[in-house]
């Protein structure tokens, strides 16, 4: 394991804890949303604050950054849209009657989930509510979005109602009422209610090409669902605490938990193949990057693990409270904490070591494969009918 890292830069502009950190699609900017009721825009080129968005009347719970616009939601029941270049508030979306805790931007839609038990859909440009999704018995905590084009076969699409053939967007909501619901955006009609969890649903990950949805809960489980039929496919049961965050990479599912561990699962079999330990508190956030698993924890540390072996490679110390969110860009790690700071860490050394290791592994696999091929060729030539243990 490498020595504990020191931050390249510590940004202390916020006057309250940072609840979320969003990276723009082009990687040029970061957005932080804070308990101080403001959002700040940071350049990834010079790590300076280039925008200060003020206007919310209470703390910001979540934020989302596009290349030209920023979105924030707040305990003041509103969502705001901001111009990235000028810092001007372009729109205020009003309608929720309680804390708005999550937003999602997809196409021309803005989706929101709230403690008022509803999710809503807004027109991004017209500052207008398009749809309300009402049916949960408690607050909506997490959102996902997909199109029926991504998941349905032609014959399945034929069975859809005419209105839904025109607008094929679907919204997925997870709630503290222990359910996940799938809604038609065009009509607001609930398409599926996914039943099985016995605790609040805290996180969702969608894999539309494979028709799968993953949900993590305070019941200590992760569940996999077929998003077309609503069928529960698998239950991952090994965690001993609430499942707080999920990441899906190459059919490997990573889950961070209040039990102080991250686990890696093979999606296709449900097998748990790795457990990442060393956290002294809940794992609050995680991010996979180039064979390395980065985690943020309630113990105020970020960590880097070899994703394959589970070996802890580095601890990033310096924050005073829980790390709520992490982002990675250009081999820099960004960590945002409830202590109000954004810290930037250089991870080039870890990435370089990991690339060398991967190269060695691939070379080793190549030699092993070559040996296996020669062995198979030999066995075929002599007409051997017994399969030998020689690398096949």
Automatic annotation (TrEMBL):
Superkingdom classification of source: Eukaryota
UniProt entry keywords in alphabetical sequence: Repeat, WD repeat
WD repeats: 11-43, 93-132, 170-193, 194-235, 236-275, 316-348
CDD domains named in the record: WD40
Xref: InterPro entries: Quinoprotein_ADH-like_sf (IPR011047), WD40/YVTN_repeat-like_dom_sf (IPR015943), WD40_PAC1 (IPR020472), WD40_repeat_CS (IPR019775), WD40_repeat_dom_sf (IPR036322), WD40_rpt (IPR001680), WDR86-like (IPR044715)
SUPFAM superfamilies, per database record: Quinoprotein alcohol dehydrogenase-like, WD40 repeat-like
PANTHER family: PTHR44489, WD REPEAT DOMAIN 86
Record's protein name: WDR86 protein
The species this protein was found in: Turnix velox (Little buttonquail)
Lineage: Eukaryota, Metazoa, Chordata, Craniata, Vertebrata
Gene (name only): Wdr86
């Amino acid at each position: 394991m490498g020595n504990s890292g020191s931050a390249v830069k510590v940004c202390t502009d916020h006057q309250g804890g940072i609840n979320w950190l969003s990276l723009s699609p082009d990687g040029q900017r970061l957005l932080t949303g804070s308990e101080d009721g403001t959002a700040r825009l940071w350049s990834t080129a010079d790590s300076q604050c280039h925008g200060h968005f003020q206007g919310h009347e209470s703390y910001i719970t979540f934020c989302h950054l596009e290349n030209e616009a920023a979105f924030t939601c707040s305990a003041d029941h509103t969502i705001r849209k901001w111009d990235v270049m000028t810092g001007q508030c372009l729109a205020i979306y009003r309608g929720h009657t309680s804390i708005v805790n999550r937003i999602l931007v997809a196409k021309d839609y803005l989706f929101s989930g709230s403690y008022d038990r509803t999710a809503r859909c807004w027109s991004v440009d017209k500052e207008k509510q398009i749809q309300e999704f009402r049916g949960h018995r408690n607050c909506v905590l997490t959102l996902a979005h997909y199109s029926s084009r991504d998941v349905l076969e032609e014959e399945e699409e034929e069975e859809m109602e005419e209105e839904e053939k025109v607008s094929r967007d679907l919204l997925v909501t997870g709630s503290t009422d222990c359910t996940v619901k799938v809604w038609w955006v065009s009509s607001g009609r609930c398409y599926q209610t996914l039943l099985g969890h016995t605790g609040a649903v805290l996180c969702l990950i969608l894999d539309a090409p494979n028709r799968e949805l993953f949900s993590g809960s305070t019941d200590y489980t992760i569940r996999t669902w077929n998003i077309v039929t609503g069928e529960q496919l698998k239950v991952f049961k090994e965690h001993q605490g609430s499942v707080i965050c999920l990441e899906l990479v190459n059919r490997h599912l990573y889950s961070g938990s209040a039990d102080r561990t991250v686990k890696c699962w093979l999606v296709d079999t449900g097998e748990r193949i790795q457990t990442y330990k060393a956290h002294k508190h809940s794992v609050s956030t995680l991010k996979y990057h180039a064979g390395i698993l980065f985690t943020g924890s309630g113990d105020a540390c970020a960590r880097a693990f070899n994703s394959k072996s589970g070996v802890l490679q580095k601890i990033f110390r310096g924050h005073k409270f829980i790390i709520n969110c992490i982002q990675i860009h250009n081999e820099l790690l960004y960590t945002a904490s409830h202590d109000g700071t954004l810290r930037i860490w250089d991870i080039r050394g870890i990435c370089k070591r990991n690339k060398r290791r991967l190269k060695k592994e691939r070379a080793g696999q190549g030699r092993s494969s070559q040996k296996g091929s020669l062995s198979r060729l030999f066995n075929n030539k002599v007409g051997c009918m017994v399969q030998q243990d020689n690398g096949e």
